[in-house]
Specification:
alpha+beta; 3 domains; three-stranded antiparallel beta sheet; 54% helix
Amino acid sequence: MKKTIIITLILIFGFVGFLSYDWHKKTTIQKDDQRVTLYSWTDEEGTKHFTDTQPPNDARNVYVQKGYQYVDQPLVVKIKDKTTAAYRWAKEKLFKKKDRKRKSDR
């Protein structure tokens, strides 16, 4: 009995720890790295290039575009969104049946 409780607690704390780390990583650590610079340029042969590294010195028609790198949502937010959607779906299905029964009783 004690082994089961201890293993269950370890699993729960491990999962909560992972969710906390994921939240911290995706909301604070990566904020510093979100600036991305994209370059488009034409080489000597007329070929157009799109890169995130600086073009060579002999490049023509160099355009610089600043942007933000995509960072995925934290797992906690994804779980919350899916749970909310499932709740709304279940609520809609359950209450539609009750409303139909009430209308037919009248």
